[in-house]
Amino acid sequence: MSDMTDGIQIASAELVTLEGVAIDVATSAGRLIVEERPAHLGVASTKSSATDVVTVMDQRAQDHLLGALARRRPGDAVLGEEQGGRAGDSGITWVVDPIDGTVNYLYGLPAYAVSVAAVIGDPSRAGTWRPVAAAVVNPVSGECFHARRGGGAWRRVGTGLSVPVTVGHPRRLGEALVATGFGYAADTRRWQAEVLTRVLPLVRDIRRLGSAALDLCRVASGEVDAYYESGLNAWDLAGGWLVASEAGAVVGGLQGAGAAPSADLTWACAPEVATEFGLLVTAATADLRGA
Ligand code: IPD
Ligand code: CA
Fold this sequence. Notes:
This protein has helices spanning 12-35, 56-72, 102-107, 186-199, 212-221, 234-246, 274-288; strands at residues 2-5, 8-11, 45-46, 53-54, 77-80, 92-100, 113-121, 129-138, 143-148, 153-157, 163-164, 177-180, 205-207, 226-229, 250-253, 256-257, 266-269. Helix 4 links the parallel strand 12 and strand 13. The protein is globular. It contains 7 helices and 17 strands. The protein folds into 2 domains: 2-164, Fructose-1,6-Bisphosphatase, subunit A, domain 1 (Fructose-1,6-Bisphosphatase, Chain A, domain 1, 2-Layer Sandwich); 173-288, 3-Layer(aba) Sandwich (D-Maltodextrin-Binding Protein, domain 2), CATH 3.40.190. Strands 5-6-7-8-9-10-11 form a 7-stranded mixed beta sheet. A 6-stranded mixed beta sheet has the order 13-12-14-17-15-16, sandwiched between helices. By secondary structure, it is of the alpha+beta class. Helix 5 packs parallel to helix 6 (234-246). D-MYO-inositol-1-phosphate binds at residues 81, 97, 100-102, 181-183, 210-212, 229, 231-232, 236. Calcium ion binds at residues 81, 97, 100, 235-236.
């Protein structure tokens, strides 16, 4: 048995292997960031803006992931949020976010995750790649969301058994609980706040939980009904994209449902209200970004 993904044939057994590797390395990196968190964790550096922080543990967790993946999958490439990555020749790239929700981690809010996804295509070029196996681990709650293409979406807590997750069933947009997030640049936040003024009056409520990877997994588990955000990088969205779509969510981008999610727009939604939600967030984003 094999899965044909955009012209690339991956044996089902290989997808199972990739999913297992994603679970193992994300879990061990999650353990590292909790157990070795310094007593006085500070901001080590900043990236795109003064609010886009990096802690020593972001880099240490990425180094840990690089080492673990080099041992288990020496021929694969790795692309991560922090410094360091590697080229490969297998056609698989591991797209990793060592701590998604770094601001929550800095403040000790228990909503951050390690996201590890095996993807095919070129993750540095939007629209040319897809995740095929992934794990998103919240090391504080012990939750591990995992999926492989065509295999459904699953949640395991601690050492328990994995249980399938499925999206919620809001009857109308007005009943949909919607998660979102904001970029780090003030100019971007200005128009993102405008987009929010179009969405908020039409939905049940908004949540800003602070980790895009977990937001997408919460769509998968029905803990929110929908999610949208602009400005995400491949590492923020790769794992959650697969988990959400395998759980039955409609996932899309600025071009609508089924378009690859990207920095322009990433959205995921329970099917019942996905048409309306997709039209709302794509139109609002297209109208207001850069305004
Ligand atoms: C951020 C989180 C946040 C989202 C930002 C991301 P980071 O990732 O996912 O929820 O709103 O757009 O950059 O910086 O914590 O890895
Ligand atoms: Ca991130």
